[in-house]
């Protein structure tokens, strides 16, 4: 049985009644539906909380949301569902970026983190070849332009890129309203303005899973090794692309459950 509550203009879905609360945050171009297969196996033992990022639903108001605004929304959700107890974060893609930044400002509210495919991207240690840099810049600028153009053209551009990158979500649910984070990132980066994100330092237990079958990594080998060497942490590579939970759901769930119950 699920319960839906309204928190800071977000529809927050709560499933399961376990003592530990797991807050799930997706990225581009997904919605809360990304976690369907994870909720199926978690809800018998855990309290699963998920929502769609602002602007990502078809009926959402198109708008530009800053890092501070999204962190504030995550904080409101956590406060509303946690009963004052620290939660576990399950994060992917932009959900990792926003979730990590929430954690760095609110460590006392987070018990442990499951990060999927995004680590210390953008750090000094995160080195990429010129080919990979060009690839990442190209697809992200395409999505930033899709946001700027908007309308049917922006939507078509967004769906085309999602298809090229083999995103698993329903194409009909994908619009350019989901791409504001790319415009936010690059409009600041290209004009020399800071993003305002804190360096990623994870002091709580971390399970990090990433796909190896993609053009480039969103984390450095140094960070991966450092995280893997910390007692209680685990780093697991998969022979998948970016959306591990959709490409290899059974193995993903097995690793996740094993770590949570350890």
From TrEMBL:
Residue ranges annotated for the AB hydrolase-1 domain, each copy included: 22-254
Keyword match Hydrolase: yes
Claim: Hydrolase is one of the keywords in the record: yes
Coiled coil spans: none
Cellular component terms per the entry's GO annotation: membrane
GO MF, one example: monoacylglycerol lipase activity
GO biological process, one term: acylglycerol catabolic process
Keywords for the protein's UniProt record, in alphabetical order: Hydrolase
Matches recorded under Pfam families: Abhydrolase_6
Protein name: Alpha/beta hydrolase
Organism: Shewanella psychromarinicola
Taxonomic classification: Bacteria, Pseudomonadati, Pseudomonadota, Gammaproteobacteria, Alteromonadales
């Amino acid at each position: 049985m699920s319960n839906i509550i309204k928190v800071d203009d977000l529809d927050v879905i709560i499933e399961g009644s376990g003592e530990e609360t797991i807050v799930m945050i997706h990225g581009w171009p997904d919605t809360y539906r990304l976690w369907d297969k994870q909720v199926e196996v978690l809800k018998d033992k855990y309290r699963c909380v998920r929502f769609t990022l602002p602007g990502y639903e078809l009926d959402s108001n198109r708008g530009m949301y800053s890092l501070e605004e999204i962190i504030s929304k995550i904080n409101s959700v956590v406060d509303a569902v946690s009963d004052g107890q620290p939660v576990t974060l399950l994060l992917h893609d932009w959900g990792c970026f926003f979730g990590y930044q929430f954690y760095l400002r609110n460590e006392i509210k987070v018990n442990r983190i499951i990060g999927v495919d995004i680590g210390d991207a953008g750090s000094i240690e995160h080195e990429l070849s010129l080919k990979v840099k060009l690839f990442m810049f190209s697809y992200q600028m395409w999505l930033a332009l899709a946001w700027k153009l908007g309308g049917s053209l922006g939507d078509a551009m967004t769906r085309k890129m999602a298809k090229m990158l083999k995103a698993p979500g329903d194409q009909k649910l994908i619009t350019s309203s989901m791409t504001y984070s790319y415009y936010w990132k690059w409009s600041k980066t290209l004009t020399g303005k800071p993003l305002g994100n804190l360096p990623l330092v994870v002091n709580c237990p971390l399970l990090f899973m990433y796909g190896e079958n993609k053009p480039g990594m969103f984390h450095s080998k140094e960070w991966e090794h450092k995280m893997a060497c910390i007692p209680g942490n685990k780093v697991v590579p998969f022979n998948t692309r970016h959306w591990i939970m959709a490409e290899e759901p059974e193995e993903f769930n097995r690793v996740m459950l094993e770590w949570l119950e350890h």
